[in-house]
Design brief:
The protein is mainly alpha-helical and 100 residues long. It contains 5 helices and no strands.
Length: 100
């Protein structure tokens, strides 16, 4: 009788272990990323417009990566150089505590 109870406990324990081994179904939003510049047909990124370039910076003043913004590599390179030029002539800060 004791053996039967222990066997029943083992089977329920194994079932609960198997339940956690299967992958959990987590629903994530899969929004289609698009290039901001391709969608609006922007060919030249103006480095003299800091209000536009601030959209692509985080609160500390760092440039946001492609995986977050969704821009193409070609446009990301243009954007990086425009932000760096803007910083160099003094329109944007290099480092800040609260940019936005």
């Amino acid at each position: 009788m004791i053996l039967e109870e222990s066997n029943q406990n083992n089977t329920t324990k194994k079932d609960s272990d198997l339940r956690y081994l299967s992958p959990l179904k987590i629903e994530t939003k899969t929004e289609k990323k698009y290039c901001y510049f391709e969608k609006r047909n922007i060919k030249y990124i103006d480095y003299k417009d800091p209000t536009f370039l601030i959209k692509f910076l985080n609160a500390q003043g760092k440039i946001l990566p492609r995986r977050i913004t969704g821009t193409l590599q070609k446009n990301q390179n243009k954007l990086n150089s425009a932000i760096k030029r803007c910083r160099h002539i003094g329109l944007l800060p290099f480092v800040t505590d609260d940019l936005r």
